[in-house]
Write a structure and sequence with these properties.
The chain is of the alpha/beta class. It has a domain of 149 residues: P-loop containing nucleotide triphosphate hydrolases (Rossmann fold, 3-Layer(aba) Sandwich). The chain has nine helices and eight strands. The strands form two sheets. Strands 2-3-1-4-8 form a five-stranded parallel sheet, sandwiched between helices. A three-stranded antiparallel sheet has the order 6-5-7. Helix 2 crosses helix 3 and helix 6 packs across helix 7. Bound molecules: adenosine monophosphate (AMP). The site of adenosine monophosphate has 17 residues, from helix 2 and helix 3.
Length: 217
């Protein structure tokens, strides 16, 4: 049983936030709030929000703070988040963290933990550029480290696997640079609030997952 249920997953793209969330969500009744997944779904539906997000995502830039924060604030108020939530990919700037605090206050909630996923940059680039994503359920695979059972097909739902356009080498490098400049300062921010816990995300999946559960227990 985990006791920490209002959780932020912090870390660079490719660090395994989505992968370990997937495993945890099979065992725990938590809402998975992945801002990247929400944007990809909006893009798929062709909404105005999707069009706006795409113009930033294609080059690896961040969608404006207020847009993302409003979207997350609405989620936090929804019944889906009543028993706890994993924020995956949010906040990504100090401003977003401040807006999150406000939204949590308004929803009468507080954070229990911020889990930092840490890995060397070469490994992140290797993982991102070999990543395959399911078009249907969003699950992640990897051409090198975690191949699907059948090439091009999702093990979980049979959906088609594709390479995200922002997982190209050039955009992956931009996204890591954006992480260093804009997201890295959150480590100090949440250390100051005594919320930060660290996971070595170069560990194999099972060990990483055990470490995550230990932190949340
Ligand atoms: P992700 O799936 O978390 O790697 O996010 C993919 C892209 O969506 C990012 O590179 C950003 O362009 C956008 N995005 C996701 N979350 C945020 C956020 N919290 N703030 C700004 N942009 C975001």
């Amino acid at each position: 049983m985990i006791t920490k249920k209002n959780v932020v997953l912090l870390g660079p793209p490719g660090a395994g936030k989505g992968t370990l969330s997937e495993v945890l969500l099979k065992e725990e009744k938590l809402a998975h709030v992945s801002t990247g997944d929400i944007f990809r779904s909006e893009i798929g539906k062709g909404t105005e929000l999707g069009k706006l997000a795409k113009s930033y995502m294609d080059s690896g830039k961040l969608v404006p703070d207020e847009v993302v924060a409003d979207m997350v604030a609405a989620k936090l108020l929804s019944a889906e988040c009543a028993d706890g939530f994993l924020l995956d990919g949010f906040p990504r700037t100090i401003r977003q963290a401040e807006l999150l605090e406000k939204a949590l206050d308004q929803a009468g909630k507080k954070l229990d933990a911020v889990v930092l996923f840490d890995a060397p940059e070469e490994l992140l680039i290797q993982r991102l550029t070999a990543r395959l994503t399911c078009r249907k359920c969003g699950a992640s695979f990897n051409k090198i480290f975690a191949k699907p059972k059948v090439e091009g097909v999702c093990d979980h739902c049979g959906g088609e696997l594709y390479q995200r356009s922002d997982d190209s080498l050039e955009t992956a490098k931009n996204r890591l640079a954006v992480y260093r400049e804009q997201t890295f300062p959150l480590i100090e921010y949440y250390t100051g609030k005594s919320l930060l816990k660290k996971i070595d995300s170069s560990l194999p999946k099972a060990e990483g997952y055990a470490a995550l559960r230990a932190i949340l227990s």
